[in-house]
């Protein structure tokens, strides 16, 4: 299996629009990969800085991002080892990396370069730099600096211009000024103009009212139609025949309506992050199992079937964790259907 088979721009344009799910444990990775083999479509699996540290184990210090680096590398190697047996293309991605987390990014990129020397391809498929809180010129310049290292070894770069609201993985943008939740077309063009001089394999997470998490209907004002205006602006600047020169990313996809997703995809979104919804879906299966089997989970021996009856087959973690995997898979199938990412292989 080639982890990078979804990396080329042609793949995203002519085939699926991919949902992207966060990886915290190996069990979640198995569920996501199984789901993709079941629906016969590609997958993007990503790690966050906090999720990477969790994958490595909470006992490791992370003051210099060493746990996050170790966990991210371990997750990527695990995905490579297991996913190929499912016969499904997998893109291995890292999520938001703010300026203060650049040592984490540096550690992953070093691993990519070392893996490339040994195998002719990077360990990961792509990485995201989220310097949206920095001045625009600094944001773009830093992205260009890293992209010059990434492009020669075939790594895709995702960057963010404009801010995704809400809170995720320790980054709190709940109080951000509303105007910053909507990226301007001139800003997107500046990004495109700078990065396209280095290489074509990059995507832009442009803000159109996106918010991490799920909120009461009406509290989040998404305007995916703005992405069409960004495409038109870039097309005019480029002067080419391509109607959609931009590869766009939809952050905060959980809780979005089918119409919002459809509009985003129509206007050039090729990747949508879905995490909050899948976290809850994972919990649902475990929660329902525990509630339904409560009388079998209160002690090692003794249940409604008899005072001497053992309960190991109920409290074995493989049993109840699997129930969470099942409900997670069903939610991911919904995301794939909404994006048109079914039977694409």
From TrEMBL:
PROSITE patterns cross-referenced by the UniProt entry: ALDOLASE_CLASS_II_1, ALDOLASE_CLASS_II_2
Cofactor(s) required for function per UniProt: Zn(2+)
Alphabetical UniProt keywords: Glycolysis, Lyase, Metal-binding, Zinc
Cofactor note: Binds 2 Zn(2+) ions per subunit. One is catalytic and the other provides a structural contribution.
Metabolic or biological pathway: Carbohydrate degradation; glycolysis; D-glyceraldehyde 3-phosphate and glycerone phosphate from D-glucose: step 4/4
GO BP annotations, alphabetical order: gluconeogenesis; glycolytic process
InterPro entries on file: Aldolase_TIM, FBA_II, Fruct_bisP_bact
Top EC class for this record: lyase
Record's catalysed reaction(s): beta-D-fructose 1,6-bisphosphate = D-glyceraldehyde 3-phosphate + dihydroxyacetone phosphate
General function of this protein: Catalyzes the aldol condensation of dihydroxyacetone phosphate (DHAP or glycerone-phosphate) with glyceraldehyde 3-phosphate (G3P) to form fructose 1,6-bisphosphate (FBP) in gluconeogenesis and the reverse reaction in glycolysis.
Family assignment from sequence similarity: Belongs to the class II fructose-bisphosphate aldolase family.
Protein's name according to its UniProt entry: Fructose-bisphosphate aldolase
Organism: Heliocybe sulcata
